[in-house]
């Protein structure tokens, strides 16, 4: 566990509830995300588009991410030494602290081509086509049961066929937030349903140089640390397995960003949790 830089920020600008969105969204129509929507688009046209976007990622975006994010990646050996296991399907999680942090995740685990669960209005907005092309899977409204069942089926099929799914279990983006907010239960439920490991990743920060502050207006440089796979404990009663998994995942991400569970203070599982204002 390493000590890390804490970016200067006015904590009062963060929402009251830990899963609430810091960045406002419009009133886009999300009714298109129904039982007939292709949550994982397998059409030839879309596949060609994905290939072109991924070429751009590898040749331009990934190299530039080291500059614009001040990115340093640690723990890649945890991917390499578990390569055979992860080829059978895996989930990954991370704290959500930057609009471009998924670029860093894709860079860290390449050549794996992950998918990522996203808030549905990220797909209906102007950046929607790009979000889809980099693997974005919109989450349908919870009150649409048929859509939710279809979405879960497609995600399970992805994982059972050796795919990789990234999830932000805090539920929303809080820019430059240092502490790890409570996790929502969905990631642990999905991991149990498909019996796949969860790879924890954690973003922490370094103090930017004077040049970075002036040239890129950076408030912090980014570290991304990759942890060891975490598995469901099948020795526990079924009703305890998901909670236990979520608690261990939350603790792992805390450790990766250089915080003890005690110093982090947040409860591990979201329960209408509210923001803590740290001194």
Brief characterization of the structure:
This protein is an alpha/beta fold and 279 residues long. It is 38% helix and 13% strand.
Amount of beta strand = 5-15%
Overall, the morphology is globular
- Euclidean distance between termini CA atoms: 21 Å
The value of Rg in angstroms is: 18 Å
Quick one: how many beta strands? 7
Number of domains: 1
- Encode the helix/strand succession as letters: HEHHEHEHHEHEHEHEHH
Figure out the total of helices.
Answer: 11
Report the oligomer: single chain
Average pLDDT, to the nearest integer?
Answer: 93
Outline the biggest β-sheet: 7 strands, mixed
What does this structure look like?
The protein has helices spanning 44-68, 77-80, 83-86, 101-109, 121-124, 128-133, 145-160, 186-194, 210-215, 238-256, 261-264, and strands at residues 72-74, 90-93, 115-119, 136-139, 164-167, 198-206, 221-226. By secondary structure, the protein is an alpha/beta fold. The chain has one domain: Glycerol-3-phosphate (1)-acyltransferase (3-Layer(aba) Sandwich), CATH 3.40.1130.10. A 7-stranded mixed β-sheet has the order 1-7-6-2-5-3-4, with helices on both faces. Helix 1 (44-68) packs across helix 4 and helix 8 (186-194) crosses helix 10. It is globular, with a radius of gyration of 18 Å.
């Amino acid at each position: 566990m390493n000590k890390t830089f804490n970016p200067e920020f006015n904590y009062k600008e963060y929402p009251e509830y830990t899963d609430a969105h810091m960045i406002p969204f419009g009133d886009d129509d999300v009714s298109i995300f129904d039982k007939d929507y292709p949550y994982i688009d397998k059409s030839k046209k879309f596949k060609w588009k994905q290939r072109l976007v991924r070429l751009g990622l590898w040749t331009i975006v990934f190299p530039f991410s080291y500059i614009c994010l001040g990115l340093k990646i640690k723990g890649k050996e945890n991917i390499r030494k578990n390569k055979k296991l992860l080829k059978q399907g895996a989930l990954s999680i991370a704290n959500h602290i930057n609009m471009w942090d998924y670029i860093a995740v894709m860079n860290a685990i390449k050549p794996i081509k992950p998918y990522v669960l996203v808030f549905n209005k990220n797909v209906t907005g102007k950046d929607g086509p790009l979000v889809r092309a980099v693997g974005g899977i919109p989450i349908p409204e919870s009150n649409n049961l048929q859509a939710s069942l279809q979405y879960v089926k497609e995600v399970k099929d992805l994982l059972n066929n050796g795919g990789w799914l990234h999830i932000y279990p805090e539920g929303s983006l809080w820019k430059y937030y240092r502490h790890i907010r409570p996790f929502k239960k969905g990631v642990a439920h999905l991991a149990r349903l498909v019996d796949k490991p969860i790879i924890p990743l954690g973003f922490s920060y370094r103090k930017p140089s004077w040049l970075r502050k002036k040239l890129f207006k950076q408030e912090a440089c980014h570290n991304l640390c990759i942890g060891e796979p975490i598995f469901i404990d099948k020795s526990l009663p079924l009703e305890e397995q998901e909670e236990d998994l979520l608690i261990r995942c939350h603790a792992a991400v805390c450790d990766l960003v250089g915080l003890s569970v005690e110093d982090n203070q947040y409860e591990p599982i979201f329960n209408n949790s509210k923001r803590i204002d740290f001194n």
